[in-house]
Amino acid sequence: VDDSVMQLLLEKASQAVRMQPDGRPSDEEVAFHAARAISLLSANRLNQKKIVQYGGLPTMYQLARQPDTDIQAEAATVIANVTSSSWEAQQRVAADDVVQLLL
Questions:
Q1: Helices 28-41, 45-53: inter-axial angle, 10-degree rounding
Q2: Per-residue pLDDT, 40
Q3: What b/e string do you get for 1-14 counting C-beta neighbours within 10 Å, with b at 16 or more?
Q4: Is residue 57 within 8 Å of 93, Cβ to Cβ?
Q5: Mean pLDDT per 10-residue run, the chain (103 residues)?
Q6: Which range of residues forms the domain containing residue 54?
Q7: Virtual CA dihedral for 23, 24, 28, 30, nearest 10 degrees?
Q8: Model pTM?
Q9: Helix locations, 3-68, DSSP H
Q10: How much is the pLDDT for 23?
Q11: Contact 89/82 with Cβ under 8 angstroms?
C-alpha cells in the first residue's frame, strides 16, 4: 500500500484511542475499522516494514489494551504478523515490555 495510506490509517487508529480533551471516550468504531484495515495490510511483508517504520507498534499496543475484544484481536494480529518475519520487530516488542499484553 502507498506510504501515505499507511500513515493515514496509523494516524486514525492513534487518534481513535486517545481520550478527547473534554474527557469523552475513544472512538471504538474508528479504532476497529482502522485496526482491521491495518491487520489486513499487515499480511504483506512490505506493509509490515511500513507499520514499524511509521511507528505503528505503539499504536497497536494501545489498541490491544482497548476493552473491545474485536479491536484487541485486530491489533494482536498486526503485532503477530509484523513480528513473524522480523527479528528486529520481535526485539522491539520485547524491549517495549508488552509481551505480557499478547499472552
A1: 130
A2: 98
A3: eeeeebeebbebbb
A4: yes
A5: 96 87 75 97 97 96 92 96 93 88 76
A6: 3-102
A7: -100
A8: 0.89
A9: 3-17, 28-41, 45-53, 56-64
A10: 58
A11: yes
Please give the pLDDT value at position 54.
Answer: 97
Which CATH number fits the domain that encloses residue 88? 1.25.10.10
Which three three-digit cell numbers place residue 65? 489494551
Angle (CA) 80-89-12 rounded to 5° is: 70
How many structural domains are present in the chain?
1
**Which pLDDT score, from 0 to 100, does residue 101 have?**
77
Which of 67, 4, 9 minimizes the C-alpha distance to 35?
9
Q: Which amino acid is at 80?
A: A
Quickly tell me which residue has 515490555 as its cell.
97
For residues 34 and 12, is the Cβ–Cβ distance under 8 A?
Answer: yes
Residues 10, 62, 76, 47: what is their CA dihedral angle, to the nearest 10 degrees? 20
